[in-house]
Amino acid sequence: MSEAPVAERPTVLVVDDEEDLRDIMRRMLERRGYATLVAGDPEEAISVCREHPEIAALVTDLTLPGASGGELAGQASDLRPGLGVVFISGLPKDIAVTKGLVGADALLVKKPFTADALLAALKAVIPQAG
């Protein structure tokens, strides 16, 4: 048996308060071999993080009800050290950084985006997904 075992599909938590966008991102990722979990707000996302230690990455809208995507990412990373994070926003990254919504090193995909752009971002934050 010289073949390497097949790697498990990385699990991505998709967080967006717009159900249609959550569903589109979930389908984009599942078609490309990712396992997905979804949440509609930061509170639900943190609950999902607690219940699913297999989460490899968080894809979150930058503007969410109750907390920013940046605040959510901080809380989720505290629960899951090493968690990859991709932010989605209609704002250009330089403006999001200036407003203090994300750090300069954050990976931000600007809306509207393609499946390829989202996947490239995930591959950058989940090395084994490449």
Structure description:
The structure is a single chain. It contains five helices and five strands, in the order βαβαβαβαβα. It has 130 residues and is of the alpha/beta class. Strands 2-1-3-4-5 form a five-stranded parallel sheet, with helices on both faces. The longest helix is centred in the N-terminal third of the chain and has 13 residues, at 19-31. Helix 1 (19-31) links the parallel strand 1 (11-15) and strand 2 (35-39). The model is unreliable at 1-6 (pLDDT under 50). It has helices at 19-31, 42-51, 69-79, 93-98, 115-125, and strands spanning 11-15, 35-39, 55-61, 84-89, 108-110. The chain starts with 10 loop residues before the first strand and ends in a 5-residue tail after the last helix. Helix 2 runs parallel beside helix 3 (69-79).
Structural class by helix and strand composition: alpha/beta
The biggest beta sheet is recorded as: 5 strands, parallel
C-alpha end-to-end distance:
24 Å
Q: How many β-strands, per DSSP?
A: 5
Spatial shape: globular
Quick structural overview:
By secondary structure, the protein is α/β, with parallel strands linked by helices. It is built from 5 helices and 5 strands; from the N terminus they run βαβαβαβαβα.
Overview features:
39% helix; alpha/beta; single chain
Summarize the helices and strands and which ones pair or pack.
Elements: E1 11-15, H1 19-31, E2 35-39, H2 42-51, E3 55-61, H3 69-79, E4 84-89, H4 93-98, E5 108-110, H5 115-125
Parallel strand pairs: 1-2, 1-3, 3-4, 4-5
